[in-house]
């Protein structure tokens, strides 16, 4: 700590320059919406009167309006008269801008030799929304559109900072030593869940491992930090002026060794996960920890064919759809879904935070191969999770309108379809055929080749078994009245 004494008005001022590197044990509460709450301990030795205190090493994406500085013990009422935040630490580009119009030294390395070149910074490099402007350096009366070597700057400048810094003017009625709590919101910290489901060579019972991935793009290194994760959609006010940050995934370093478990508990209307121990989380680093492991989780695979996928009559202004060709275009894809029950009986029964769920299947050579992925939303326990994994290769569907009739004097129409499922594989497949009765809300099926179930007010489902290397056709006629 370095102390500088000055005077402000009639009060003695002590300007204390504190660095976050002097403190350890920050705590983080990271939300899966690219923001976090950071808490640090700041030792203060205040004299009587008004004093300036600066604390360096906060994040470069700190939200200044969220800063709270308070006495941890609750015994001292800190009177913060003024607060400022500097989030523009110097770098090479910034220093070149500060020395525009001035001459500095550049060092060019040639094998084991160094050449010293004097050059005037006519224009510093600038990255703007319109593109990147190359630097212009004058050397011996000639203009170069690049740096002639590594720049050496004669000084840093009184107005420059090396790290993002918070500064306060604090008034104290009497001298006091205390440890203050500093907390603030920052962007650039986020987390997400990843789930790996590994299927055996045959069968539907899977082994499950779930990982939490914490990403730090905040511009600050955290050492010996206690980390908590909040799952849920917390409402935040957004501002158009706030910069949007990339959600690109960083390279992952995964450890499979046994470790203390991640603890989970309900927190208000959300769920809170506490990571074990204290964690080092460097800037631009992604840290992963396992939080779920289960074997023999039962899953079911479902083939679904929806040959039409058109909107019901409500989208036509509340009138019957009587155009004969409406909804007769057919698609061929039969999609694959896999589902499981998030229950204790199924080896799970824990709140599952939103994330990416990946399925793998073991091959005959023992290798696991990727067979599909999708994302899931926050899922409470005792709910069913169903994810789309792709389109079946050996199953093909075709839907054909065979008849359409509209009565000349009555408010009545009839329509007939054939739905053909072709199984080009060797194994039997069970296919759920979804039919939307879209022309009008008052309908009844007057003829059907197979049994069906009502899914909702305008949808029915035919579940059929199709043997390997065979074709199954479902026919039905629906009557609409209005």
User: How large a portion of the residues is in β-strands, by DSSP E?
Assistant: over 45%
**Rg to the nearest angstrom?**
33 Å
- In whole angstroms, the N-to-C terminal distance is 84 Å
The shape, in one word, is elongated
**Which stretches are poorly predicted, pLDDT < 50 over at least 5 residues?**
1-15, 239-261
Biggest β-sheet description:
10 strands, mixed
Number of helices, counting only DSSP H or I runs of 4 residues or more: 1
Helix percent reads under 10%
Task: Please state the structural category.
Answer: mainly beta
User: What is the average of the pLDDT values?
Assistant: 84
Q: Give the number of DSSP strands.
A: 34
Descriptive tags:
482 residues, 1 helix, elongated, disordered N terminus
Structure characterization notes:
There is one protein chain. The chain is an all-beta fold and about 475 residues long. Among the domains are: about 1-90 and about 160-185, no CATH class; about 95-150. Helices cover about 0% and strands about 55% of the residues. The chain is built from 1 helix and 34 strands. It has one helix spanning about 90-100; strands at about 1-10, 10-20, 25-30, 35-45, 50-55, 70, 80-85, 105-110, 115-125, 125-130, 130-135, 135-140, 140-145, 150, 165-170, 175-185, 190-200, 205-215, 220-230, 265, 270-275, 280, 285-305, 335-340, 355-360, 370-375, 385-390, 395-405, 410-425, 430-435, 445-450, 455, 460-465, 470-480. Strands 17, 18, 23, 24, 25, 26, 27, 30, 32 and 33 form a 10-stranded mixed beta sheet that branches. Strands 3, 4, 6, 16, 19, 20, 21 and 22 form an 8-stranded mixed beta sheet that branches. A 5-stranded mixed beta sheet has the order 1-2-5-15-7, with no helix packed on it. It starts with a strand and ends with a strand. The model is unreliable at about 1-15 and about 240-260 (pLDDT under 50).
């Amino acid at each position: 700590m370095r102390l500088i004494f000055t005077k402000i008005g009639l009060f003695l001022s002590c300007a204390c320059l504190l660095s976050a590197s002097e403190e350890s044990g920050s705590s983080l509460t990271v939300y899966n919406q690219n923001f976090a709450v950071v808490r640090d301990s700041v030792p203060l030795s205040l004299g009587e009167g008004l004093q300036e205190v600066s604390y360096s090493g906060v994040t470069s994406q700190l939200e200044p309006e969220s800063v709270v500085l308070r006495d941890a013990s609750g015994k001292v009422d800190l009177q913060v008269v003024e607060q400022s935040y500097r989030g523009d630490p110097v770098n090479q580009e910034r220093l070149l801008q500060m020395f525009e119009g001035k001459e500095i030294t550049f060092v060019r390395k040639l094998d084991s030799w160094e050449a010293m070149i004097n050059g005037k910074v006519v224009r510093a490099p600038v990255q703007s929304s319109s593109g990147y402007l190359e630097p212009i350096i004058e050397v011996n009366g000639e203009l170069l559109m690049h740096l002639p070597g590594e720049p050496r700057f004669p000084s840093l400048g009184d107005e420059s900072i090396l790290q993002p810094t918070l500064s306060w003017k604090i008034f104290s009625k009497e001298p006091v030593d205390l440890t203050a709590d500093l907390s603030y919101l920052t962007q650039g910290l986020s987390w997400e869940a990843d789930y790996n489901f590994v299927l055996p060579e045959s069968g539907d019972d899977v082994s499950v491992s779930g990982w939490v991935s914490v990403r730090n793009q905040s511009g600050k290194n955290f050492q010996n930090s206690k980390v908590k994760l909040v799952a849920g959609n917390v409402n935040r006010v957004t501002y158009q002026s706030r910069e949007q940050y990339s959600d690109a995934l960083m390279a992952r370093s995964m450890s499979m060794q046994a470790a203390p478990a991640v603890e989970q508990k309900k927190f208000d209307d959300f769920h809170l996960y506490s990571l074990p121990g204290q964690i080092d989380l460097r800037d631009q680093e992604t840290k992963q920890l396992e939080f779920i492991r289960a074997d023999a989780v039962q899953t079911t695979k479902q083939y679904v064919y929806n040959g039409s996928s058109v909107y019901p009559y409500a989208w036509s202004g509340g009138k019957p759809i009587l155009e004969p060709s409406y909804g007769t275009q057919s698609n061929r894809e039969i999609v694959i879904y896999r589902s499981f029950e998030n229950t204790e009986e199924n080896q799970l029964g824990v709140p599952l935070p939103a994330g990416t769920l990946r399925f793998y299947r073991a091959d005959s050579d023992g290798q696991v191969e990727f067979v599909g992925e999708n994302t899931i939303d926050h899922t409470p326990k005792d709910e069913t999770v169903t994810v789309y994994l792709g389109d079946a290769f050996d199953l093909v569907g075709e839907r054909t309108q065979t008849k359409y009739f509209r009565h000349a004097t009555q408010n009545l129409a009839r329509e007939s379809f054939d739905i053909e499922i072709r199984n080009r594989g060797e194994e039997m497949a069970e296919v759920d055929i979804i039919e939307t009765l879209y022309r009008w809300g008052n309908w009844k099926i007057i003829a059907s080749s197979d049994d069906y179930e009502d899914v909702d007010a305008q949808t029915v489902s035919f579940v059929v078994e199709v043997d390997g290397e065979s074709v199954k056709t479902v026919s039905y006629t629906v009557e609409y009245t209005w």
